[in-house]
Design brief:
The structure holds two protein chains of two kinds.
Chain A: E1 3-6, E2 15-24, H1 27-43, H2 48-67, E3 72-81, E4 84-93, H3 101-104, H4 118-124, E5 128-134, E6 138-146
Antiparallel strand pairs in A: 1-5, 2-3, 3-4, 4-6, 5-6
Chain B: E1 6-9, E2 12-16, H1 23-40, E3 44-48, H2 57-72, E4 76-80, H3 84-93, E5 101-103, H4 106-118
Parallel strand pairs in B: 2-3, 3-4, 4-5
Antiparallel strand pairs in B: 1-2
Chain lengths: 147, 124
């Protein structure tokens, strides 16, 4: 059974205004994910600080998808919830999965020689966060930020 | 292959990062800079990141590594021009850039390097 950690409040009133899917197979793809996230955030009216937080979180998660998940893809969705606008990024891979989610979400914990801030940092930079993973089944990370 | 140019200004090296770097390019810069420090006996490194729209944990680690390697090679590193939105995000991400000296712009960064060259005892 897949393990999951979530601090998102899913509501049925949320609708998706626009959607795009990008592959994450190379380091250049990480740059493209950053650029696409920026474009969608600008188009959706996010402030410069919010754009920067989203793009930084996207960069961390895209690198995780490539380095730990052996590549995958990201879905970028512009959300509308009444007067609120949001941007949702969903990273998915079919990699080895994460053994211990709580550990993986701890600052400074890394199995790959990094700083161990990618996942925990991306969570702090987002309003909604959801992760599902199971050994051998891959990983799916969803973040959203609202204006 | 892409490379980020490293300029020599007297005893210092100046690097202006103007592209959205992929990870390999960042690693290349780390290697190139340490080699140049030794080759020209540089006493300081100024890294201008005013064009960088984000600093994620990978770039942050690269900056910290460069500062640490330069220190071992007897050169000071100053990072200048960080955008306010980048600074806000960096702190929330959990990155503190320990051991990296910063200045608001190239002029102030140069002054800081010059001062540490003239008065090494006062610094640190």
């Amino acid at each position: 059974m897949p393990d999951s950690v979530s601090n998102s409040a899913e509501r049925s009133s949320i609708s998706v205004a626009q959607r795009a899917v990008l592959p994450i197979r190379t380091q250049e793809d990480i740059v493209r994910v950053r650029q696409a996230t920026r474009e969608h955030a600008v188009a959706h009216g996010f402030s410069l600080v919010d754009q920067t937080k989203l793009v930084t979180a996207a960069s961390e998660l895209a690198r995780n998808t490539l380095d730990y998940g052996n590549g995958g893809e990201v879905e970028i969705a512009r959300l509308i919830d009444g007067m609120r606008k949001g941007l949702r990024l969903t990273f998915s891979d079919q990699g080895p999965g994460i053994e211990d989610l709580q550990k993986a979400l701890t600052d400074g914990y890394s199995t790959g020689g990094g700083l161990g801030l990618g996942l925990s940092g991306a969570r702090r930079l987002s309003n909604d966060f959801n992760i599902e993973s199971a050994p051998g089944k891959g990983t799916r990370v969803m973040i959203a930020r609202w204006r | 292959m892409d490379r980020i140019p490293i300029l020599k200004m007297g005893p210092f090296l100046l690097v202006t990062i103007q592209v959205d770097m992929h990870d390999q390019l960042a690693m290349q810069l780390q290697d190139d800079l340490t080699a140049r420090i030794v080759a020209v006996k540089a006493r300081g490194v100024l890294i201008d990141i005013s064009s960088l729209e984000i600093v994620d944990s990978f770039i942050g680690r690269m900056i910290s590594n460069i500062a640490a390697m330069a220190r071992v090679l007897d050169a000071e590193t100053v990072v200048v021009g960080m955008q306010p939105a980048v600074a806000i995000t960096l702190v929330e991400l959990g990155l503190s850039l320990d051991g990296v000296r910063t200045a608001l712009n190239v002029d102030k960064g140069m002054a800081l390097l010059q001062k540490s060259l003239e008065d090494p005892e006062v610094e640190q």
